[in-house]
Amino acid sequence: MGFGFLSLGTVTLNPRVGNPKPRIWRYPNASLVNSMGLPNDGAEQVRVNLTKHSRDRAGPVIVSVSGLSVEEFAECFRKIEPFADGVEVNISTPNTEGVRIFLDPAVLTRLLREITGLRDKQKPIWVKIPPYYDEKEREHVLDLVDICEKWEVNGITAINARKVREPRASIGTGGLTGPMIFDDMLRIVSDVYRQTQGRIPIIACGGISSGVDVWRAFEVGASAVQIYTSFVYKGPGVVRRMNRKLLQLLKSSKTDSLTQVTGTGLR
Questions:
Q1: CATH number, domain with residue 12
Q2: CA angle 97, 101, 105 (to 5 degrees)
Q3: 223 phi, psi to nearest 5 deg
């Protein structure tokens, strides 16, 4: 289909049924709101699945993991990492309140300390950060990015879904994804790029639905992108169309590689 890697999950140590259905809705402007609550089969079953399909992989598989305590989170990481090509540490899901304890700098530090003692340093670790909407929140999230850099995290995924009120959801809220958060993603990716001076690769996530969107994300500091909502609305052909557009943009800009585009819009 044209993907460079697959990002699977989020996986927790124990199976979760997630929030009661219905828990996903289409919104205007090709966006979605989901209130999933991390439904998954648990780390043991995911290990089985990853092992069963290991020979079928055409590229890297990154597995997103999470937990409700440092111990649970670290144990999930320990079980999953040997069977993945990398791990994304999800500390910012808007639909599972217990996970958000890791937005506390002290708790995140404890978690990264635990993971550092378990990790295979040949495999990357990414941390997925939440969006922010005022200066206080901005300073807080960028402090978390500094902690990630201190503990030698290999990538920052920016951003998670935006928490919004959704009366149809069992918990009264959901996570907004798609083009309605695209500008927020660009703003935050550029902030993280400036904060780290390009030292940590950034995986842009939020409202990307075309090759031009990918190019704009790279211009503000991204080194890779993830898509979700556009895959729902536009189907599997969206990736090939993005790649073709990127080739056209590279040719017209006389640029050899997307790596040369990263951060050029901020210079």
A1: 3.20.20.70
A2: 150
A3: -115, -10
pTM recorded for the entire structure: 0.96
Question: What percent helix, strand, coil does the chain show, rounded to 5?
Answer: 45, 20, 35
C-alpha neighbours within 13 Å on the C-beta side of residue 86: 19
Is 173 part of a structural domain of the chain? no
- Residue 175 domain-assigned? no
In a domain, 28, yes or no: no
Bridge partners of 8, per DSSP, are 63
Percent of the chain scored above 90 by pLDDT? 95
List strand residue ranges (DSSP E) for 146-260, in order.
Answer: 155-158, 162-165, 173-177, 202-205, 224-226
Per-residue model confidence (pLDDT) at position 241: 97
Alpha-carbon distance of 89 to 67, in angstroms, equals: 9
Domain count, the chain: 1
pLDDT of residue 55: 81
Q: Is residue 171 part of a domain?
A: no
Domain extent, residue 81, equals 6-21+36-165+181-266
